[in-house]
Write a structure and sequence with these properties.
A hairpin with a 2-residue loop joins strand 7 and strand 8. This protein has a 7-stranded antiparallel sheet, with helices on both faces. Strands 8-7-9 form a 3-stranded antiparallel sheet, with no helix packed on it. Strands 4-5 form a two-stranded antiparallel ribbon. Helix 1 packs across helix 10. By secondary structure, it is α+β, with helices and mostly antiparallel strands. The protein has 10 helices and 12 strands.
């Protein structure tokens, strides 16, 4: 009986973390509006070359991203969004913001590590506007053009070229694994095209990408997209490229058909794990306040299909566990009290709350 009471209380608590006592307008960014507006709210975040440029002076949010003066305006206007993790302070990381210039909508964003020639994560939102599927299918490059083009936004925003050739080892049962998926950005052809940038790719085992847990996760996450205009889903995905403590989070380094245990020029890291962090913001109509809930996925990077009896719920963790495993501070732009509450919920409670079996 005691365990039952605890579960009920925890479930109620997970559903009712609200923005009471905070100004919810701080979360109204281009990614949070869902209407294609270029007018941001309190968007202060990010860093030049990975440097956060100092600590936050906001007593309600001490770990939010803080902008630097030489950061491109398009980046400054986006990285206060709730989907953004804390930017890496390692001197070689650069946040890239992909705007659909045909509509003005923020499509998705990425953190690029230019030393490792790898993305660290991609983040984006689901709302009732950007989940509309106005086109179908995958992008097919015209004859003579690259199927996975270089990222022109990285060059325009930071004067950096991501690759001079494509090192993805596709001959070794690996794919160009989309982090922000093609199928999540079918609002128009331009948004779909941007998901094919090389900076949105991680090398993934073919079965993992096309038939495994990653594929099943992508399908399931689309079913969780908001059906109400006031609600938003904030999503962060990536593969592990940074060590946590003494443990390596890599399977090794590859360039086309060659392998290495250590980094070499032209080689790219192969993540040992992949992760997903999901934050849901819902309007409670009875109180007219927003409530928040979040969960994470932690997937071993294995070349196998989703097997009978396997369940996505087996890979669900809370956000605090995901932060410990990745070294990434997710949803840092939430006010501290709300962030703390949504990060530390019991994983079994979260499975029930989010409908996992």
């Amino acid at each position: 009986m005691k365990h039952t009471k605890f579960f009920i209380l925890a479930l109620v608590a997970a559903m009712t973390f609200s923005a009471c006592g905070t100004d919810d307008s701080l979360e109204i960014t281009k990614t949070d509006q869902g209407n294609g507006s270029n007018n941001g709210g309190e968007n202060t975040g990010g860093g030049s070359g990975g440097s956060t440029g100092g600590e936050s002076t906001d007593k309600y949010n001490t770990n939010k991203n803080v902008a630097t003066v030489n950061m491109p305006e398009v980046v400054r206007n986006a990285i206060g969004g709730l989907e953004f993790p804390k930017l890496k302070n390692n001197g070689t990381s650069y946040p890239i913001v992909h705007i659909d210039k045909t509509t003005g909508m923020l499509n998705y964003s990425t953190e690029w590590d230019d030393n490792m020639k790898s993305q660290r994560w991609s983040c984006y939102t689901f709302n009732t506007t950007n989940t509309k599927q106005n086109i179908k299918g995958r992008y097919e490059a015209p004859y003579g053009q690259r199927q996975y083009p270089w990222d022109i936004d990285l060059q325009e925003q930071w004067n950096i070229v991501d690759f001079t050739d494509d090192p993805t080892p596709t001959s070794q049962h690996m794919d160009h694994g989309h982090i922000c998926p093609n199928a999540d950005r079918l609002y128009n052809a331009n948004q779909r095209y941007q998901t094919y940038y090389m900076t949105n790719m991680q090398p993934q085992y073919r079965d993992f990408n096309q038939h495994g847990t990653w594929y099943e996760m992508e399908k399931d996450l689309r079913t969780k997209a908001p059906k109400i205009d006031s609600d938003t889903l904030f999503i962060v995905k990536g593969g592990t490229i940074d060590p946590v403590g003494s443990e390596s989070n890599l399977l090794g380094w590859k360039k086309n058909g060659a392998s290495s245990e250590t980094q070499k020029p032209g080689y790219i890291p192969i993540p040992k794990y992949f992760f997903v962090a999901v934050l849901k913001k819902e309007l409670n109509k009875s109180t007219n306040q927003y409530t928040y809930s979040a969960f994470g996925y932690w997937f071993p990077h294995e070349n196998k299909a989703f097997e009978n009896g396997d369940k996505l719920g087996n890979y669900v963790v809370n956000i605090k566990t995901l932060e410990d495993k990745t070294g990434i501070d997710f949803f840092c732009n939430l006010p501290d009290e709300i962030e703390k509450n949504v990060e530390n919920q019991d994983a079994e409670v979260l499975k029930k709350l989010w409908g996992f079996k």
